[in-house]
Specification:
Strand order of the largest sheet: 8-17-10-11-12-13
Number of strands: 18
Order of helices and strands: EEEEEEEEEEEEEEEEEE
Distance between the termini: 42 Å
Radius of gyration: 21 Å
Number of helices: 0
Length: 258
């Protein structure tokens, strides 16, 4: 047996939060999710004395490094011809985006944009793709509208059907503050679980990177690599993920690198 210590492991740019051994494999948990530009090199340093990986005679294993594998379930960089009628087809060649409520999404300058917005219901301007997994880290880049207007875009999370899903609303107010709101929709009834109307100041022309991580029943929202909020809820477990725009094309901004 071995007592694992987080200090034995290092990953560039990450803090190792826990280390366990499961089914003869080492499970290393980091504090911030990986993104496509991160190093995936894990370095193990066997301590000079005390507990460590060693044989029955006390001979210690030499230090080693290992590149870990990351699984990307779906991705779309939206790099294709401009269109006001269709956002398809995704760059990963997977199944197409689906617009369950009839909104028309398209492409504008290699970014997703909602051209045919609908304000009749809160979820009308949604689109999703199937990931096949409920525990994922969802990441996209958002560029909000012009100064003086309220802009918002949402992550559509763990979508099951038109009446069951989560939303992570992100945007800016007309006064310039950045805001978020996490909402749960169960049996068609929407409940705001947590919100913040001033977690930062919007800068005109800035492209913001936001992430949502779902692990089990825990959901975490990030601004870049900074955790904004975390909550636990087990009401909805779907495998469809996507985007939703709240109040019309003129207030949506653009979305890139989903």
């Amino acid at each position: 047996s071995v007592t694992t210590l987080t200090s034995w492991y290092s990953i560039p740019g990450k803090t190792v939060s826990s280390v366990t051994i499961l089914s003869n494999k080492v499970r290393v948990v980091v504090s911030v999710p990986f993104v496509e530009t991160d190093s995936t090199l894990v370095t193990f340093t066997n301590p000079v004395s005390g507990n460590g990986i060693q044989d029955a005679s006390g001979n210690k294993v030499a230090d080693f490094s290992q590149t870990i594998g990351l699984t990307t379930y779906r991705t779309d960089n939206f790099n294709r011809a401009n269109s006001t009628t269709s956002v398809n087809s995704p760059s990963d060649a997977g199944s197409d985006w689906v617009t369950p409520f009839g909104a028309t999404w398209g492409i504008s300058s290699n970014k997703a944009y909602c051209f045919g917005a609908n304000t009749t219901t809160a979820q009308a301007n949604a689109m999703f793709i199937e990931s096949g997994e409920s525990n994922v880290t969802l990441r996209a880049k958002f560029t909000f509208g012009t100064s003086g207007s309220t802009s918002s875009t949402s992550f559509l999370v763990r979508y099951v059907d038109a009446n069951n899903y989560y939303l992570a609303d992100i945007g800016k107010l007309s006064t310039g503050q950045l805001f978020y709101a996490i909402k749960r929709v169960v049996a068609g009834v929407a409940t705001t679980l947590v919100s913040n109307t001033n977690f930062g100041t919007w800068v005109n022309g800035t492209e913001y990177t936001f992430m949502v991580k779902f692990s089990g029943n825990t959901m975490t929202l990030y601004n870049g690599t900074t955790s904004l909020v975390q909550f636990v809820d087990s009401s909805v477990v779907g495998t469809k993920y996507g985007l939703r725009l709240f109040s019309g094309a003129s207030s949506s901004g653009n979305t890139d690198r989903f």
